[in-house]
Amino acid sequence: MIIFTHIPFIIAILLYFTSSVWSIGHIIKPVFFNKAVGKWSMMMGFLIHSGFLIFLGLESGNLPITNVYESFVLLIWCILFVYINLDYLYKLPSLDTFLVPVVTALSIWALTFDGGNLLITVSLQNFWLIAHIIPIFIGYAAFTISFSLSIMYLTQQRQLKLKLFGPLFTKLPSLAEIDRLMWKTISFGFPLLTLGLVFGTFWVKTQNILGEQWYLDYKVVMGLATWLIYAALLHMRLVSSFHGTKIACLTIAGFCLVLFTFIGTFFMGSKHAFQKMSTQKHKEF
Amino acid sequence: MSILVVGLNHKSAPVEVREKLAFNANNISTALSLFLHRHQSAETVILSTCNRVEMYVSSLDGAVKTEDVLSFFADFHKIALNEFSPYMYHYADDRAVNHLFFVTASLDSMVLGESQILSQVKEAYTTASMDEATGKVMNQLFQQALNVAKIIHTRTNIGKRKVSISSVAVEFAEKIFQEFTGKTVLVVGAGEMCELLLKHLYEEGARTIVVANRTFERAQEIANAFQGQAIKYELLGEYLAKADIIISSTSAPHYVIHTDQVKDAIRHRRGNPMFLIDIAVPRDIEPEIANIDNVYLYNIDDLQSVVSQNIDERTREVEKCRSIVEEEVEHFMARLEEMKIEPAITLLRNHFHTIGKEELARLKTKLKNIDNGDWEQVIYTVERTINKLLHHPAKVAKQEAKNGGGYRYVEIIRKLFGIFHHTDHS
Which CATH superfamily is domain B165-303 in? Predict the structure, then answer.
């Protein structure tokens, strides 16, 4: 049954993979790899992905975050949702080449979490849950995009340094443009992350869901670290008007923290409102 | 109708000969009208640029010969025929069309794929058509040539890559800064190449320009030309941190810009990138500077190698362009054949309608009492019948003419229906 419910997501992943191949291929051999194929397979994948989430939501009657797998799938959806909107608004040239492979990799990784042995313990019909999760997810999505932009920045600056003036050099935008977009996406994501964290704090304070020592929860600690690194980035940009490779490297570090906060903490034993299925069942008995 | 081109270019003739035959904006109209005065049924366009002088002529059944055009050149410029005729080339019909398409698409230019020739051809054609020197054939030919050039520029990479040092440098600068408004350009030394680069950057929007040179007067001279600021050479170090783009071309035998200075500058700039171009030999900028973060340094060799790579790339595209040109020449020649038959078809149509009108007039005298509505129906029916009868043969004749031999069909039509063009009698 689990395999069956997977199928739409696997199809979406295949489409993302096709899109990755085409968007990379477009740079190397534009005659053979038509850009439209890349774009439309991503869009098709996104539609199927959306349908899959709706199906999951309808099935459980809730936001599809009842286990780690579902929330991962939702996060990836958010990344694409934010990307498609930003692309529509700002016309981000060649970003798909850098973002869609990341999305594909994350999706494949998400698949490995299906087994659903970590189930959410809090009530899903909770205002605080939505107020905590949604802003953070959209913030994470923006950070993923800024991560792809940093990779793009470092690629382009490497080409300029090493004097590699091939097709990739011509297709990528200027350093100034990538820098500007990086700044835009981070300054879009940061307030959302802040909002999500603030709501989370309220929630934990009022309803005591993580126990007395909630502030020692790995996810809480890492969340704070993530917030700090992006705050530092914004400070450097706003107050000291920093640019260039350092900012790009910090953005990459920020994204690694995001990933670690989101997934890594589970490996460290943090439950953060999720619980092993077996223990929960045990409780019910 | 035949098409002829007579001319010379940078490959066939030295500049001493080209300049003697060149036309300019002041005398080109006179030349066109003088030529048409000599050959009244002809159409002509004169293309005169610094690399070529060419005369395109179309005349009925090749009435204008190469010798006529040559003697026109000799008479107009008042030079002896033998002084320039060995340098001239001439092509007729499809080869002439091929030549024009080649020229317009910049496949015959000194700098392969440059875009200036396109506007020069456009201008030559506009001048000729304003002076009423062009007709049906030349209009079609030149409009098609401009079209083909556009097709070639969009479908191939012939004009995509930059092929001059300064345009390559500007392209790199664009890949760093996106745009130059608000960017500061620091020029060290006052060589010719520097000025060329500066001009390019100025055209792209750079407005804050600082010039430093050993002789202050020369610095001022350049600064004035670009509304910039001249500074004393000794103050160079102070301005480094403010500069986004630095162009250096002094004749100093040693390095002028040192690693420590740039390290210091980049710290002040907080990671804002710096773009340095060293076009001096021996070099002005310490090469180790390239290792500093956010600093991009290029010397003359770096730029030159990109230029030659890009030229190679353009040369590789020529074959692709050639096959597009050949295809388009074929289309145009077919269209020309079709054009040849058009007057004959018009004549045929007029001939039929005249007969129809005569017969109607005869009928009208017989049917005195017919009311207006009915009479209109009769006229309508007769005209419709004629049009229907002619529709198919006209279509087939046009189609057949496309494959060549338009004249044969003209002859057949004339013979079959006993119609003659009035000019045939003259």
Answer: NAD(P)-binding Rossmann-like Domain (3.40.50.720)
